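Severity: low
Component: inverse-folding endpoint
Summary: output formatting inconsistent between runs
Steps to reproduce: submit the following structure tokens with default settings.
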């Protein structure tokens, strides 16, 4: 099973991700850092992976991390994630 975790501060990101056609059907976990419900969980998640900026994306397969996309790298983490999911084997 593939899990995709996305920490963001823009609700439009969820619509963008849902519109991406992929060969696999990942289970998406969206954590909106600006919402009261997700704020604490989002900060803990980002802290665990050493991410400071939003958005931050992580792909896990069978509970093991496969790939992480950091905004700190200078690239758009969401575009990197979409490209990765479209080409996922």
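Observed output (run 2 of 3):
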């Amino acid at each position: 099973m593939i899990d995709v975790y996305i920490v963001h501060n823009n609700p439009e990101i969820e619509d963008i991700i849902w519109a991406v056609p992929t060969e696999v059907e990942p289970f998406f976990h969206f954590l909106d850092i600006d919402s009261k419900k997700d704020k604490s969980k989002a900060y803990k998640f980002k802290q665990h992976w050493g991410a400071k900026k939003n958005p931050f994306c992580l792909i896990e397969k069978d509970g093991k991390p496969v790939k992480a996309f950091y905004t700190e790298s200078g690239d758009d983490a969401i575009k990197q994630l979409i490209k990765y999911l479209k080409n996922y084997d």
